[in-house]
């Protein structure tokens, strides 16, 4: 048994408007049609929903409970209708975004917050990956956007630059390397290097130093914790360690080959698959972030 949504709306209108006449005016239908729909609904349910014996029509006890459920169904139906209208005008049902874990997540979250405030109907999924795993996941999941440090350019991909990110070579204040006046490659290779795990298993971090002892962590939060514990040394994005460097918990290592480097992240989409309205709006918000 599947109740007619129009019958549920008729029941709701009768109660809201105080009778059949008011419901008919509200729904722009004749009163007999409203009465027929509710009678048919009662027959389907096998319940009396309305007490018609008094001066004004009233809900029966069963009708009071069924109206609560009917209003839930009506609200869900109206939500579906609204979604259908928005999808028909270019809002995509789903949007998948892959974010490189070395990048600050705050701009992406701030953009998503604006999308939520604008009541964008698209379901957005954000996945964080590292190194070669970013493009690997972008291709494997057929994602719509990726925010990436390095990627393999292809004719089917279109990229736009995002604000630069600075990385700093550092270790804890009590690490042996932190006391050195100058550090060369041989010095670094004598100690444990900390890196993040490449989920593609390609191991293509070109900024690693080639030592025999490398510990791979699950992400930059874990890597920072390991640095603070004195477990090893490694590159960290500046935005994650500024306070620790300022307070002296971490030290910038005086590496002769350069203690800092900068890179320009890219916002990448598929050139052969236009973004929907949600994807285009998200890309716009990300590009406009200072």
List keywords for this structure.
elongated, D-Maltodextrin-Binding Protein, domain 2, 3 domains, five-stranded mixed sheet, four-stranded antiparallel sheet, Arc Repressor Mutant, subunit A, 290 residues, alpha/beta
Description:
The chain is of the alpha/beta class and 290 residues long. The chain has three domains: 5-88, Winged helix-like DNA-binding domain superfamily/Winged helix DNA-binding domain (Arc Repressor Mutant, subunit A, Orthogonal Bundle), CATH 1.10.10.10; 94-163 and 265-288, D-Maltodextrin-Binding Protein, domain 2 (3-Layer(aba) Sandwich); 165-262, D-Maltodextrin-Binding Protein, domain 2. The chain is built from ten helices and 13 strands. It has helices at residues 5-17, 20-27, 31-45, 61-88, 106-117, 132-140, 185-189, 220-228, 238-247, 277-288; strands spanning 50-51, 58-59, 94-100, 123-129, 145-148, 157-161, 165-172, 193-196, 214-217, 234-237, 250-252, 260-263, 266-270. The strands form four sheets. A five-stranded mixed sheet has the order 4-3-5-13-6. Strands 7, 10, 11 and 12 form a four-stranded antiparallel sheet that branches. α5 links the parallel β3 (94-100) and β4 (123-129). The longest helix is centred in the first third of the chain and has 28 residues, at 61-88. Keywords: DNA-binding, Transcription, Transcription regulation.
Blueprint (SSEs and pairs):
Blueprint: H1 5-17, H2 20-27, H3 31-45, E1 50-51, E2 58-59, H4 61-88, E3 94-100, H5 106-117, E4 123-129, H6 132-140, E5 145-148, E6 157-161, E7 165-172, H7 185-189, E8 193-196, E9 214-217, H8 220-228, E10 234-237, H9 238-247, E11 250-252, E12 260-263, E13 266-270, H10 277-288
Parallel strand pairs: 3-4, 3-5, 8-9
Antiparallel strand pairs: 1-2, 5-13, 6-13, 7-10, 7-11, 7-12
Helix pairs in contact: 1-2, 1-3, 1-4, 2-3, 5-10
